[in-house]
Amino acid sequence: MKKTADPMPAQALASRANIHRSVWALGFVSMFMDISSELIYALLPIYMVTVLGTSVLAVGLIEGIAEATASIMKVFSGALSDRFGKRKLLAVIGYGLAALTKPIFPLANSLDWLVGARFVDRIGKGIRGAPRDALVADVTPPELRGAAYGLRQTLDTIGAFIGPLLAIGLMWWTANNYQLIFWVAVLPAFTALAILVFFVREPKLPATNRPRTLPLNRQELGRLGSRYWWVIVIGLAFTLARFSEAFLILRGESSGLPPMWAPAVLVLMSVAFSLSAYPAGVLSDRMRKTDLLLIGVALLIAADLILAFVPGLFGLGLGVALWGLHMGFTQGLFNVLIADSAPAELRGTAFGLFHLLTGIALLLASVIAGLLWDSIGFQGTFAAGALFAVLTGAGLIALRRSAQGHF
Q: Which of the listed ranges 89-98, 138-147, 232-241, 249-258 does the model predict with the highest average pLDDT?
């Protein structure tokens, strides 16, 4: 089926400088929100297990359901952004909701309140995710999309290691005062919201290029095309091969890291992620994308095996670093594949549906990981992850041969 042209020809786009400013601004929005979130979530699994007595299975179930909730919201927010052409407005609502939930964490006095705040925060993530990802494609020329998504992912991930670093310092400075640290997380969340409101410029999506109805029906979804559905298959396989990063934090705790140093696991992972995301994005503009995905699979297999069988802090550090590198080689690349394969007027829907299906897969993967951890130990969790990754790699090779040049 013939692919619909982008809604705005190159001459109608903002200047290259303005395009870059919007991508940079969206990156800083993600960075500050990640600082806020990671200040909380770098400590939350340990807090739930050691202070509140929550089981690891329950942590996996809560994390999986929270992410699945966000994924369900993404499909609707993405479709709405296509229908009404209001991607920035939905992003503001999503980031605003996430910012407003942050004060709940220091005020919560029970697991119910923490779980509730976690879910509401993920609803905000779900509302903003697909419109934001589609907006990056809207303001970026096709030949620079890999670099643009890599840049946004890098800034996002810088926030993901600044947050845990702050958590470590504040745990030491406050003598493990979780509530005070959760209060500190409120400030960067509202900073992110302010940057989005005042510095991100949204190009107008012409009404003639927007769907006439909410594009969640068979006819509109059929217009996404076979290449898009190949991306969905690959994304699902990848997601089943990995699980929530909460298990990396718990792996650090099982290696003897005290609660104050547990966030160092996310710091190391995020450093590796951020250092690799932009170079991988640039490479994706110049080479076959399945080759980069296979590199990501190999890195994930190595990370899982090391985390399962190499003891001590050396094994923990090497495994976590490789996990971060695999994220850098794959996460931004999936955004590029979605943006390139879907019609421009259905990008929000395409991103939302991708996030929905991979969110369900993440829920399944996290529940399996929690069950294996409680019944066998961390070795069973990471060994199973390696097995799923091997199967993913084999499936990816088969898909590359049968996808008729799509990738």
A: 89-98
Angle subtended by helix axes 145-173 and 111-138, to nearest 10 = 150
Residue type at 40? I
- Asked whether residue 242 is assigned to any structural domain, the reply reads yes
- The verdict on residue 42 lying in a domain is yes
Sign of the Cα pseudo-torsion (67, 68, 71, 72, in order): negative
CATH code, domain with 107: 1.20.1250.20
Q: How far apart are CA 85 and CA 72, in angstroms?
A: 20
- Residues of the chain above pLDDT 70, percent: 85
Into how many domains does the chain fold?
A: 1
- Cβ(304)–Cβ(253) under 8 Å? no
- pLDDT tens digits for 282-300? 787 777 777 888 898 899 9
Stated length of the chain: 407
Return the pLDDT at 191.
Answer: 94
Residues 6+ apart with CB under 8 A from 371: 57, 60
Identify whether 56 is part of a domain: yes
Q: Which two tokens stand for residue 71?
A: 């994924």
Whole domain around residue 233: which residue ranges? 15-201+219-402
